[in-house]
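Thought: the user wants the 3D structure for the chain below. I'll pass the sequence to the structure tool as-is, report back what it returns, then summarize two notable features.
Action: structure_tool
Action Input:
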Amino acid sequence: VNHILSQGVTKFALHMDRAIDANQRETSVGFDRENVVFSPLNLAGTLAVVLLGSGGRTFDEIARILGFEAGVDISGHSEIVHHMFGLLLNSIKFSGDSARTHSSELFSAGSIFVQSGYSIRPEFAAIARDVYKNDIINVDFHQRPAEAQRIINDWVNSKTRGKINSILSEPPYPESKVILASALYFNGEWNQHFFKGATKRKPFYLASGQTINVDMMYNGGEFPFYEDKQLGVKILGLPYKDSDSAITGYSLKSEATMYALLPTATNSNALDDLESRITPEVINSLINKMINSTCIIAIPRMKLSSTLSLNRALQSLGLTSLFTPSEANLGLLSTGLNNAPNPSQSTSDPIIFSRINTDDPDTDTDPITPASTTGTYGVTGKDFSGKKNYFRYKDSEGGYDIQQWDNGVYLEKIRRNIQKREVDLNPEEVKDPRATSSTPFVDHDKNLVKLTGGGRRSKRQNRPIDPGFLRFIQAKGLPSYGLDALRNSANFINPGLYASDVLHKVEIDITETGTVAAAATGVILAKSGGQKIFNANRPFLFFIRHDPSSLILFWGTVNKPTPHY
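Observation:
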């Protein structure tokens, strides 16, 4: 499953790169296009949280563009997919003492900013917190938009260690109801520094045929390298220093590597031709064929920045319903506007965010102050009709009897010809997942995954997850919240939320030492017949990948390095 998820993120990166490029072609003036840099992992993590809160067509579209539906029974086991993706994301959060050792740092954070008065489903809040480490923060977009802007920008500044000090140049729309935000911070030092004293102004040849001057950095030594003459590309690996802390479950040689792909052709369409032929399989094949070679390297010193509006790009990939008021379905995120208690607030705060609005902005003219208490999951008994905003329904197709109220839910499996009973879920006690007839929702530490078998399956499901993998997940004792049953219920409520835009901001430095300053080292470069030459003096691609998981952290297309002269 991890392979499917990482391949999905790689495919998503390639599709997003092409979609962003297509949008730039429509809006750019002249032949030369702007640089593009974005974080596929960051975007995928944010969309995964939206997937968590979605249903119907919106759920299908997000699962498809993320590649999660390939080989995974996503509709019936979405919680398992979220758990596995969350574990994969958390596995790459390594950090070292950069001030002392200059080791690499990488971590991500997420937050959900919610308009006061809107209740968040406790199941959604629990998985967002426990799986994706997202915080729930209440803000008042309607009456205090400037304060909401400050809170969000402070969150960005904090989570990126000051690298991105703001994302909102103006207050958010007062009609905004939810902002889904995430931040990815990377601070890496090359395993082998470039020669700072050797950096010189050199020509860079644009696709239009024009020439600019850039600060060209030079390096030499043993680096991963491969040239595919049939594809017409050179690929170079620039490993970052490992962090002091190991990643659980992996034996590491290098945690992160920047891979640069340079077309061997020098014509104006060389990069476009290369991009059109790259697939996840091609990327893996190129990396697998790389060997350490003696190389002479020339790459521009750059400070790359992109602020992207991605709604059009995402729509071109097939995610259309999320931006359409009459079609969006975010019913697992919220039950709508009421006075239900909101999840507890947190002081954590983005790089990407979606502004999510209600279909009718006038519905929030009188915001309701949420109660101060926090929703709980501990319940007992079988009748909760006395709870606030209580409703009950039976999912006859899925075989569930569901009771829900403001801050809780109770799900019971309906067994044919077998009397219903409650079973405390425990890995040691559950011998066969199908033997469990009821799942009481209790506190996180006490609530374990209940895996069901047999019965009808949702029409959206492709094929069941491998039974051996299900047993592995069961042994993990991961919590279950009943989201799949709610999503597939005929009485699933759509609160009328939709996204008006998705903004993404990334800044990254490529310098002699990586992303941190260090003392210069004097080395003399000498050419010989056996050395590989990698001279990035024309448009090229690069991506930074977490090698143990194969997840792509950053993707960049360099058309015109900045700064240039």
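Final Answer: Structure generated. The longest helix spans residues 2-27. The chain has two domains: 2-95+103-188+305-372+493-505, 196-302+515-558.
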